[in-house]
Amino acid sequence: MHQYPRFNLLFLSLFLMITLAGCPGPASDEAEDEADSETKEVLLEPFDAPKLADLDAQVEWEEQPVLDSLELLRERQSQEKPLVSVDEALKLKNTNQEINEKILSALGRLPKNDEEVDWGATINRHVGADLKSTNPIMGSSAVEFEVSSLTGFGLFSFDWNFKPFAVSDTVVSWQSSKDKLYDKVVLRDDLTWSDGVPITAHDIVFTFKTIMNPEVPVPAVRSGTDQIRWIEAYDDQTLVFFHKESLPTNVWNLNFPIIPKHIYEKELKSDPTLQDSPYHVKFENEPVTGGPYEIEKRERGQEILLKRRESWYMQDGKQVRTRPYFERVRLRIIEDPNTALLALKNGKIDEMALNPELWKTQTEDDDFYKTCTKANGLEWVYFYFGWNCETLFFKDKEVRQAMSYAFNHKEMLDELCYGLYQPCTGIYHETAWMAPDPMSKPYNQNLAKAEKLLDEAGWIDHDGDGIRDKEFDGKVIPFRFSVMTSSQPLSLSICTLLKENLAQIGVICEVKPTEFTVMQEKARNHQFQAMFGGWGTGTDPDTSINLWKTEAARNYVNYSNPEVDKLFEEGRREFDVEKRAKIYGKIHELLYEDQPYTWLYFRNSFYGFNKDLRGYVFSPRGPYGYGPGFSSLWKPVEN
């Protein structure tokens, strides 16, 4: 399957965040007022593309890899010997990392041959929330990106080391100019939409122009795509991407979800929202898909059922692409983690992310291992308290630092997270190439220092009522704020701990459980004082620019630092990897100094799996979050 690697929303991780912590994650829908202001902008200037022959004559093209994701994984696994047999792995209880590696080495492998695979199988996935839209460019949560990764059509993917390649399922050839200003892609001519209409280069150009239409509310997909100057279709198969400038990040901007031109061009002008008119509602409910699966049934709030599309892998009676391992993919929507675990044990779902409590206390007995096993791996997903820097409370960095010193990080990590997660000090994991060296040291609770910082910032209990206050424009404001979170157990516990800690130093914090879609909306509109959230690290550190650059679309906390803005611009223009690493390491350090977030922990992947499931492979983007991704999962034929 393809992926959309440039999003700093590790798009498979948002539903895990909902399940594990209830954070808003990488929400991406555009607020109405933001959309209204964008209509005044011109996002795509007219462009006269040169003739292809003239371009070929002047450009020095360099061949780029076109690979099969599964073959790439199969080649890697051929060099890795299983530490135990499958039967032995299924008998193991995962009590330490040595056993964890044994389980993954045996159960995380691809089938040896087609005869091992149950081709008629259904996999029942767990997701913590329903999808808002089936249109791939309208994605605003991970479940939507998960669905579009199965139903959608894409050109590029990447391996476990984040090396990009064009996907052989859809691409014949990929060339980049030596100066990195152009990319030329030739599509396969045996691609069709689910309604039988051929997929062509014109669909990609149409999608690009739609994404760049300021009246279309798609900021998540637009981020990165807006760095492309133009895309020209020279015929039905040949595309050239024209970049605005020579940047090392250009390769990550090439891949975005594609929509069918013949469907959406008919009513784009009359309804640029792509969702309000009866016409768009029809295709929302019955979408035309370009990928391996199509939507067979959708019960809102209950499940989304996808069916393998024969016309994806068969043409004129011949198999032209790898057949997806599952005939059907069912995404079961279960919000409560305990209910989901019961469904896992009962075989109603085949996999789920486990929060620390479930991993430590409810998946260690014979009852769990009768039908299930579990595994874990490193994942670059961090969680935080976000402080709205435009509020009276958190505009000063000294106050934000005080919040970080007031919080009992040790109690959170040891007791609430059961010692499973590691402390986080900023936006990059210590194992990432762009992390600072040396790594910033984690905050520890220091109430005396927190009080001193608040005193210096002018937040003092002037009237003796036990609550700190400060005068603004002649009005005394008590330090009383709310932190927005969901009602998931772990997130509530962490926010409640913050409330208790702050009460010790004269600050009143109200924990405000909020429905997930409402959280998304409030975050986009900056309508909060503080929030508990989480982000996944993108394939390139430049993806974080839309979180931290002044007035960036997903800079929910209204953070602004001209030096950080400048460094992000330098980082996306530096080709030397070591120099780039130093630039992003400096960004990490500046953010740590300013504390727009109180960084809490990196959440590793902890999963429960039905014993019939095979092929799960962990990477820093989770068990399904890199190139081969979900397509590597399979079920064996019953003996």
Q: Main beta sheet, described?
A: 6 strands, mixed
The fourth-level CATH homologous superfamily of the largest domain is Periplasmic binding protein-like II
- Computed over alpha carbons, the radius of gyration is 25 Å
Backbone structural class: alpha+beta
In order across it, which strands form the biggest sheet? 18-24-17-23-21-22
Description:
By secondary structure, this protein is of the alpha+beta class. It folds into two domains: 348 residues, 3-Layer(aba) Sandwich (D-Maltodextrin-Binding Protein, domain 2), CATH 3.40.190.10; 222 residues, Dipeptide-binding Protein, Domain 3 (Dipeptide-binding Protein, domain 3), CATH 3.10.105.10. It contains 24 helices and 25 strands. The protein has a six-stranded mixed beta sheet, with helices on both faces. A five-stranded antiparallel beta sheet has the order 1-6-7-9-8, with helices on one face. Strand 19 and strand 20 form a beta hairpin. The longest helix has 18 residues. The radius of gyration is 25 Å and the shape is globular. The N terminus is likely disordered. InterPro entries: SBP_5 (IPR039424), SBP_5_dom (IPR000914). Belongs to the bacterial solute-binding protein 5 family. GO terms for molecular function: peptide transmembrane transporter activity. It comes from Gimesia algae. This is Oligopeptide-binding protein AppA.
